Amino acid sequence: MMSLLHHCSMPLARVVRPSPRTRAAVSFATSCSTRTNSQSQVLLGLSENDLQQLSLSFGQQGFRGKQLYHLIYKRKLRDIQEFIQVPQAFRNELEEAGWKVGRSPIFNTVVAADGTVKLLLKLEDNRLIETVGIPVEDDKGSVRLTACVSSQVGCPLRCSFCATGKGGFSRNLRSHEIVEQVLAIEEVFKRRVTNVVFMGMGEPMLNLKAVLEAHHCLNKDIQIGQRMMTISTVGVPNTIKKLASHKLQSTLAVSLHAPNQKLRETIVPSAKSYPLDALMSDCKEYFKETNRRVSFEYALLAGINDAVEHAVELAKLLHAYGSGYHVNLIPFNPIEGSEYRRPYRKAVQAFSDALESSKITVSVRQTRGLDANAACGQLRNNFQKTPLATDSDNLEPQLPNMDLAVTG
Ligand code: SF4
């Protein structure tokens, strides 16, 4: 019991005799035993059953769990004191025991003229993470709202074109810190998020446990379909197989950025430990295991990887490992201090045409909110040069910038 209390300081001390309530509290405490002492206990991310067990452990009736579930996931309230449907005494007890909903304040908002919104959330330990909301109207006039969420504070992989990688790495996000990004986007847009892409700051496969927990919560509790979610990776050895074993119905997006190992290593240094052949074999296995095709992301960097020869080589590589692959071309968004340039439209078109004539389906990602510091990590770097807060970091929130133009 002591060790359980050490990890999860729910008010178990009040329970002195083994009883159904004790058993419920113990089993609930066990389920959150990965929390460290310095972290708050958060309600966001708990299932309806967890919330029921929590309510019982506080001496409440089981239906309180249902109420909590409704207030967190349907009403999407930020603060326990807003739960006016539950008794004040229970709200106070929860807070006194260190429970919070688990929602972080929005530290900064940047709105681009095309409606893309980038938020900085300020986490409990003062670290800042980015999350982006991208509204897209389809031909029939209905609007999709995509949330691009971060999975780490910073990123240890240091891809050469990436503002996040340049800022270094601090820590993995907890699962609720991923889920809350989606809720923050919904709050700002005042509408439901329809799609989630794990393509923000960080490498999701280096924080797979929390990413899977967040994916589960977004699917079961926030009710976003698995097929509406995409998990992206630059490639981390042994993780694609692990992900495949969960048989999710979500898309796996692999960031290739080069058609051969030699060039890829110059753009994605971590590729040295994961040869391209091994990565492609794992993608093939992923498809076999899940029946879900893998899509490939390719950032086009002018004069580096955007020649037609690169496209032809890429098509050959993809055909060698299966068929029906999709390539998403991303014309590079220039970032401060980067040696890379944005490719000309003509080069993008020629690259895309070369892939299509090799029977590879291709899309060119429309650059959204270019001036809204749209490249991953750019906005965060404006405020916090490294993921570790220092005295020199400008941590004063600023008013939303509503005047940004989009040129992409
Ligand atoms: S591109 Fe992704 S994996 Fe690479 S450094 Fe940036 S956040 Fe990390």
TrEMBL record:
InterPro entries associated with the record: Aldolase_TIM (IPR013785), Methyltransferase_A (IPR040072), RlmN_N (IPR048641), RNA_MTrfase_RlmN (IPR027492), rRNA_lsu_MTrfase_RlmN/Cfr (IPR004383), rSAM (IPR007197), rSAM_sf (IPR058240)
UniProt-listed PANTHER family: 23S RRNA METHYLTRANSFERASE, RADICAL SAM CORE DOMAIN-CONTAINING PROTEIN
One example of a Gene Ontology biological process annotation: rRNA base methylation
Protein known as: Uncharacterized protein LOC101501870
Keywords assigned by UniProt, alphabetized: 4Fe-4S, Cytoplasm, Iron, Iron-sulfur, Metal-binding, Methyltransferase, rRNA processing, S-adenosyl-L-methionine, Transferase, tRNA processing
Region (Disordered): 387-408
GO cellular component, one term: cytoplasm
UniProt key word 4Fe-4S: yes
Primary localization class, coarse: cytoplasm
One GO MF term: 4 iron, 4 sulfur cluster binding
Lineage: Eukaryota, Viridiplantae, Streptophyta, Embryophyta, Tracheophyta
Cofactor: [4Fe-4S] cluster
Annotated ranges, domain Radical SAM core: 141-371
Subcellular localization(s) per the UniProt record: Cytoplasm
Natural source organism: Cicer arietinum
Pfam families according to UniProt: Radical_SAM, RlmN_N
